[in-house]
Amino acid sequence: MADTPMPVSLPSGMPAGSAVGSSAPRRTLDRFVTGKGRYVADIPLPGALTVLLLRSTLPHAAILSVDATAARRVPGVVAVLTGADLTGVGPQPSLWDLPGQNYSNLKALATDRLLYVGHPYAVVAARDADAAAAAAALVVLETDGLPVHVTIDQAMAPGAARLYDHWPDNVVGRQHWTAGDAGAGFAAATHRLSGRFTTQRVHALSLEPRGVAAMPDGDGVTVWTSTQSIHQVRAGIAECLDLPEHRVRVIAPDVGGAFGMKGCIHGEETLLALLALRLQRPVRWLETRREAFIASPHGRDMRVDLDVAFDADGRFLALKADIVLDKGADPYATSIGTAWVTGAVLTGPYHVPAVDIHSCGVVTNKTPTGAYRGYGQPEANFPLERLLDMAARRLGLDPAEIRRRNMVAPDRMPFALHSGVLLDSGCYAGLLEATLERFGYVAALERAAAGPRPDGRVVGIGIASYIEMTNFGPSPVCKLIGVNNGGFDTSVVRMEPSGHVRLLIGQTPMGQGVETSLAQICADRLHLPVEDVSVVHGDTLSAPYTAYASGGSRGAGVAGMSVRLAADRLAERVRRWGAHLLRVEADRVVLTQAGVQVEGEPTRRLSMAAIARAAYYGADVPPGLEPGLEDRAAYDPPALAISYGSVAVEVSVDPDLGKVRVERITFGHDCGVQINPAIVDGQVRGGVAQAVGATLFEEIRYDGAGQPLTLSLHDYLPPLASDLPAIDLLHFETPTPFSPLGAKGVGETGIIAVPAAIANAVQHALGPRGGAMNSLPLTPERVLDAMPPVDI
Fold first, then answer.
1. How sure is the predictor about 7, in pLDDT bands with cuts at 50, 70 and 90?
2. Hey, what domains does the chain have and what are their CATH numbers?
């Protein structure tokens, strides 16, 4: 395979023997596995009040009154606030303000209308949970029911009642992309295929639900919260409460999973800060699992109508799409960003000469949707990869062949998609071939064609290819598309008097191991053992400002570059100190694992500790320097980096029960230079596990009246270990040209293409007479409905 990308161990400039590219042990794992993690629930706050939120049990109603008189008299109750008590508190801020979008202006508590089951309308602060519950039972809510929109079709119907009176309809906002002449492409097409594809509403289901604690701190407030974005939460609280940001301190202790759901400010963070300030008492709120199902933002819930034109050889001529995102009752902080991303990457790794893509977000009377791992990319991949299989069947082509004919070739990169996103580097067809060879694709197809197994199960083979937008930024692009944050990252590297290094980062570890990868980069640039680098994070008082926080698969590529730049600056400072103390020119001094030495004269050397002591002692400071050893750097990526790959899946289907079993998966991917291969492995495998769950089991459901039917783990079915097959990973490394590190992101890689690959495999198992596998999840009921008729 001459076109297969060659593995690359180290980016240019990395020292030989570098820890980058090695699987350094994950930091803090021993603490977590021995139960010593420190979460919001574990923060010691003597005398903290328990906070309980009263949430709507109605999907849509006007608030006539909220009477908390009796509740406030309950012994142990310190305060009961309703929406009427939020005078002077601003609406919850938006992170993504797409041009022309509508805003809800909702505050942390409902003021005049309840919009979904779970919408908070009052909050109780009491000495303990019993007193809070007793008070909550005495709050009297009077309402008047309003029309309920459970589906996007109901919300978009002509004359549909509006959720917001100041909007012209129930559409949050729209986006439209065009490139080439789609009309001409369809007119010239030999083959045209279309379909409607839906991805269901899902829940992030982090092991630690959300939690917030707050206490007054002088003239300000300190907030502990389970979040991915300490600086963004600080900014949001300050905006809502009209405080200068320096009076708000936000701390993220250990975060027990997030997956995007904890990426933006939530109303509870505003409320807890407000209560702490007003009551001058510490307060704590911990979300219950049942509460999380109706109160925390959901993911996905998108419909894509896709229409594609091909020539006689199966090459794309044009693509049209209509994308509709169910936002639930509130545009929330992420607005229609998920639909924007779906539209922006809908063509995937393929060359599509002409497109006409419309996307929009619609409000309904359900829990708001927000960010979830993949953020619009699985929603784009599923319809495109399903339709490619449909086209292959129509044209009599192997599914792999139709992909080969359309993939963007390496010599065309960087290749601009219709949205301006650049496919930066890689060999898409080469990695597809390597994945199929590793999987044993031809032999697998032959086995599947042999008919049902002895146990009666039918076998199917499916493939899918994908791209992943990573290294989110740069800041000018963020501004262009309405994201109210930059795309840069800042790091600080400080060498202590002992010669050890303290690395201060703005990223938030939440299980992805980013602190380990960044420590490796820092250690490499300073020629130190990685054990000599300690990492500080999660506190706005010490963490350097990071514009977009921990999301968008940007930890290694963007934060890693800020660490590298800061470490390089410190390395140069150390060299100058060493040259001064050794009385030689700076260009003669090199860093080694032992410290610094004069090049070519190994006996003339100083340890890091000796240099650090001299720098902090300050008695003999080199000209142009100052005492101490510390440097900082910010990095703003020039463009996104695009990870990519292909997936091959074998499934078996029980024709009597409709149950799908994923037998095996081969996953080939390229995320550029791997800082820590073990972490990369873990990220991909974790994403695959989530993808299997979302493909076969997981779904947040509502009845026709807008009542949620998924309220516990009895109703929501994540995958068990027994549901997961062996996952055979194939790693390739093609550095991105847009970063000297060469690293691309991998946080969402595993979850993007697996749903389409499994659906394609199930479709193959059902045969040409089977119903279309175009809606997720592929429950036994749905599969049974699609089983081909039995000939009599």
1. very low
2. 40-146+210-286 (3.90.1170.50), 376-473+638-786 (3.30.365.10), 488-635 (3.30.365.10)
